[in-house]
Amino acid sequence: MFHRLMPKEVKYFELFNKHAELVQKGGESLFELTKALVQNNPTEISRNADNIDKFEHQADNITHEVLTKLHSSFITPFDRDEIHSLIGNLDDVLDIIQDVAEVVSLYDLQHAPEEIQKLGEITMHCCERINSVVRLLHSMDNAPAILRLCHEIAELETAADRAYREAMSHLFREEPDVREIIKLKQVYEVLEAVTDHCKDVAVNIESIVLENS
Q: pTM for this one?
């Protein structure tokens, strides 16, 4: 019933979709950055860090546009607080992705064990699903598919937790250089936090669906 009555404020959904696409691109660039760290390829590390910065700045502009629109719109597709939380949580994902790139640059990290690539891959898949699920929000007819994708994001966040613990275990058992341990520990922690923020988006979207369908 709700979907027949819901105001057709298409612009909001267009902005959500654009932001979610940037989240996916940021996740892909982060994965490529982790690959470059494993391959000890500073050129690719720098190139992907620059891409992440670009996507994050573009996403900030979209966030600003959504919030500006939110304060001037009489009609919104769902509750204003839900819109505010959704765009904020999406923005947090790209912010923490950018934090990973910044920590890598700050510590001048040029190489990392293979475990970091596994974390990067899980993160990328999480970001891909964020993009997919946001694109379904325009219709509550998509509720079953939305909830399924949210569940997949939660499962990927759990997988990232396991990969993080395995990476930390390997780091403390195998790395003899204390300085490298400090650098990699910080990078692993920030990288694992990306999937935590992806899960926040999923929880937010689940709440929207359950409230409005």
A: 0.93
